[in-house]
Amino acid sequence: MDPKIIQSQLIDYVIYLREELQLSQSTINNRISAVKKFYETNDIELKWKKIKSYIGKGAKRRNRKDRPYTHLEIQRMLEKADQRGRIAVLLMFSSGIRVGAITSLKIRDLEKIEKYQLYKIRVYDNEQGEYVTYCSIECAKEIDSYLAYRYRHGERPLKEDSPLIREDFDIHDEIRASRPRVLDTQTFRRMI
């Protein structure tokens, strides 16, 4: 195919992304970079500077505005959630941990600070983005209650490598209760 025709079609595509879909400049750049890599790999030379000049500023307005949850919204979440959900909500709002990081937390990542009645939490332990944060007293109480619940219903002993928030289990099934499994992130997001 003629490179001039390809270039013309790419310019039309960029204009469509910018004006019809109202995508941001960075989103358009991301989409175009994959196409650019394809053509460069196949030794088809195009004038990328000219193509990218049509990106412009992209959408001038954001489709949705981020805002923090209100105290009332958090209270409603806590009222409707089960114990695992309450822990997740309290962890997110008291320590700033993201949903994806919560599912990777292990019991060993918690260090109880008795003096303040809260937990020091290592997030992304032994990974490049590792950091330390702290949870609120309310969150620590909920975690303690949840771990005690798990212990009472057959998860003995609570192992350091066990997930902090595990899959739901039948308290009458001792075998399954004693073998905690990690919640996958998608299930966890739906739970929240």
Number of strands: 3
CATH topology label of the largest domain:
hpI Integrase, Chain A
Tell me which CATH architecture of the largest domain applies here: Orthogonal Bundle
Beta-sheet strand percentage?
5-15%
Biggest sheet overview: 3 strands, antiparallel
- Subunit organisation of the chains: single chain
Q: Give the number of domains.
A: 2
Flag low-confidence runs: none
User: End-to-end span in angstroms?
Assistant: 50 Å
What string gives the helices and strands in order? HHHHHHEEEHHH
Q: Find the structural class using helix and strand composition.
A: mainly alpha
Mean pLDDT: 88
Concise overview:
This protein has 192 residues and is mostly helical.
Describe this structure in words.
The chain has 192 residues and is mainly α. The chain has two domains: 3-52; 71-191, hpI Integrase, Chain A (Orthogonal Bundle), CATH 1.10.443.10. It contains nine helices and three strands. The protein has a three-stranded antiparallel sheet with strand order 1-2-3, with helices on one face. Strand 2 and strand 3 form a beta hairpin. Helix 4 packs antiparallel against helix 5 and helix 5 runs antiparallel to helix 7 (137-152). The termini are far apart. The mean pLDDT is 88.
